[in-house]
Design brief:
Helices cover 44% and strands 14% of the residues. With 307 residues, it is of the alpha/beta class. The radius of gyration is 20 Å and the shape is globular. It binds S-adenosylmethionine. The site of S-adenosylmethionine has 22 residues, from helix 2 and strand 2.
Length: 307
């Protein structure tokens, strides 16, 4: 594995993630281990680290290349099961959880993963081979209405209908199996000045659908709060507005004690705040970081602590 992911918002992440240097910490999106290694360097020898990733190749990379001085464990699994994974490994409660969402640069740069429209490869897009359906399954077998919905909901694409119709017409000639062929179909329906934006939105939408990214994130946020010790931190770095909206709304809901409609004179919901927001506004990378690492340009970091 030649490409090493440059960790995004590294210093800012550590500032909000570490509450106690001898605690138990989970990096739920290990990637090539940049955040994990830095976290290790900030903690006492007695701390515990758990690194989770759905992608077996990055787990192998971390096993061979990271030199972590604390007790640690690498877990090849989906963070959707974060609660069960921590419990099974003997840590039912933890002091910090990091989610740096999306793809590792390694996966993005590998044409065989089918995640990029710039390189031709099989239409796969799974974060993990354990996931049942590929992007090709969706493109070739989803109903027209489902395709439109995917492009609208997960890509916020204005031309979802015409693109989906074109895909359905093309797949009748022969199955659409490669990123190159899908990109060519999408390009024909995109406005000339927005070709790359349209391709990004369609590929993002498909990737979200294949990996059920938004449902997985929602569940993982709920379960993360349930396993945090008081003062423990939940830190999430997102790369697009759909993810950021979920994190923002979740933090708002979980940091509000009463969620009754305003007109109720007395609280009837019994909802108790479980989080305190540490970042009232998301932390964004500075210009210098964006120049050095273009992938950081859309990053937003939000953090909260367990009450
Ligand atoms: C942006 S990279 C993380 C990079 C990492 N912070 C670093 O410093 O190298 C995101 C990683 O999260 C993993 N991932 C995404 N969704 C996941 C999920 N639901 N469960 C487990 N891993 C996931 C991807 O496979 C990818 O390796």
């Amino acid at each position: 594995m030649s490409t090493i992911h440059v960790p995004v918002l590294l210093k800012e992440t550590m500032q909000v993630l570490v509450s106690r240097p001898d605690g138990v910490y989970v990096d739920a999106t290990l990637g090539t281990g940049g955040h994990f290694r830095e976290l290790s360097s900030q903690l006492d020898r007695s701390a515990i680290l758990l690194g989770i990733d759905a992608d077996p190749t990055v787990i192998d990379h971390c096993k061979s290349n990271l030199n972590i001085s604390q007790k640690h464990v690498y877990i090849n699994s989906n963070f959707e099961s974060i609660k069960a994974l921590c419990f099974r490994n003997g840590y039912p409660k933890v002091d910090g959880i990091l989610m740096d969402l999306g793809l590792s640069s390694y996966a993005l740069d590998d044409p065989l993963r089918g995640l990029s429209f710039s390189a031709d490869g099989p239409l796969d897009m799974r974060f993990s081979p354990a996931i049942g359906q590929t992007a090709a399954n969706i493109i070739n077998y989803a109903d027209l209405t489902d395709l439109i919905q995917i492009f609208q909901d997960f890509g916020e694409e204005r031309f979802s209908k015409s693109i989906a119709r074109s895909i359905v017409k093309e797949r009748q000639k022969s199955a659409i199996e490669t990123t190159g062929r899908l990109a060519a179909i999408v390009k024909q329906k995109a406005q000339a000045q927005y070709v790359n934006k349209t391709l990004s939105r369609i590929f993002q939408a498909l990737r979200i659908a294949v990996n059920r990214e938004l449902d997985v994130l929602q569940k993982a946020l709920v379960d993360s709060v349930s396993i945090l010790n008081p003062e423990g931190r939940l830190v999430v770095i997102t790369y697009h507005s759909l993810e950021d909206r979920i994190v923002k709304q979740f933090f708002k809901h979980e940091s509000t004690s009463c969620i009754c409609p305003r007109e109720f004179p007395i609280c009837q919901c019994d909802h108790k705040a479980s989080l305190k927001i540490i970042t009232p506004k998301p932390i964004l990378p500075n210009k210098e970081e964006i120049v050095q690492n273009s992938r950081a340009r859309s990053a937003k970091l939000r953090a909260a602590k367990r009450l």
